[in-house]
């Protein structure tokens, strides 16, 4: 071994820490009520953001991804918030504009009164019903444990 702490072949005798490169998170684009090609719905966009928040990304990285993903009127709505607004504040603002604001009775009435449309596939109808149930759970109208029974 050489006197400077390296072996004769030039490598050090100390273990090296692998370099971990993290890529900035990416979120699907959301434009608002008039979705453009390649955009997603508000519900799916919000779910992506919530999933990112559960991962080990830094809050600032998530906030930057959120702001980059917003287009059109949704982008303008977020732009009106303070520059220091958190992800939670952005979601709260967008919820007030794009979130479901139906009264709980109206939401449950829509669920119970829902029928498969003539041109609707069973899969599409099922997704529509599950979406209504997801909104009811999120708003605390229905317990998560009751969803399967109600869908059956």
Automatic annotation (TrEMBL):
This is Paraneoplastic antigen Ma-like C-terminal domain-containing protein. Residues 30-148 form the Paraneoplastic antigen Ma-like C-terminal domain. Residues 1-39 are annotated as: Disordered. The lineage of its organism: Eukaryota, Metazoa, Spiralia, Lophotrochozoa, Mollusca. Pfam families: PNMA (PF14893). Residues 1-19, 28-39 have a biased composition (Polar residues).
């Amino acid at each position: 071994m050489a006197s400077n702490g390296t072996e004769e072949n030039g490598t050090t005798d100390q273990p090296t820490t692998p370099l971990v490169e993290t890529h900035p998170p990416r979120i699907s684009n959301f434009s608002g009520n008039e979705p453009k090609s390649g955009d997603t719905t508000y519900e799916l966009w919000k779910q992506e953001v919530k999933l990112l928040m559960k991962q080990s990304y830094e809050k600032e990285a998530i906030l930057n991804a959120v702001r980059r993903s917003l287009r059109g009127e949704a982008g303008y709505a977020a732009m009106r918030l303070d520059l220091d607004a958190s992800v939670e504040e952005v979601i709260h603002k967008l919820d007030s504009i794009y979130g479901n604001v139906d009264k709980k009775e109206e939401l449950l009435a829509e669920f119970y009164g829902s029928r498969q449309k003539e041109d609707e596939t069973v899969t599409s109808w099922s997704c529509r019903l599950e979406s209504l149930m997801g909104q009811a759970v999120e708003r605390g109208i229905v317990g998560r444990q009751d969803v399967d029974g109600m869908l059956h």
